[in-house]
Amino acid sequence: MSDGITPLTRRILEVVAATRPGDVLTYGEVAREAGRPAAARAVGSALARHGAQVAWWRVVSASGRLVPGREGDHRDRLEAEGVPCEGHRIARRRGDR
């Protein structure tokens, strides 16, 4: 592709772009919604390269961990949208296991 974005990356960005303030998805959930359930790492790579185009901060690891090295920025953005965080993770919400 001329813009250097693969079809998978484009789909990942579309999934993240469809989120709303306060939404939080895991890398695995984004991968599943993008049609590639085993591509959680590809989600991280796509967001590392192209995350400025979408609300990258709405994506966390399966354990709720924030992006290593960007925890402060990640936490600030999530909390501004009403998502509670504790340390370097999102706080458990009602219904979470």
What do you see in this structure?
Helix content is 40%, strand content 8%. It is built from four helices and four strands. The mean pLDDT is 92. Strand 3 and strand 4 form a beta hairpin. It is globular. With 97 residues, the protein is mainly alpha-helical. The strands form two sheets. It has a two-stranded parallel ribbon with strand order 1-2. Strands 3-4 form a two-stranded antiparallel ribbon. It has one domain (7-90): Orthogonal Bundle (Arc Repressor Mutant, subunit A), CATH 1.10.10. The longest helix is centred in the N-terminal third of the chain and has 11 residues, at 7-17. It has helices at 7-17, 27-33, 40-50, 71-80; strands at 25-26, 59-60, 85-86, 89-90.
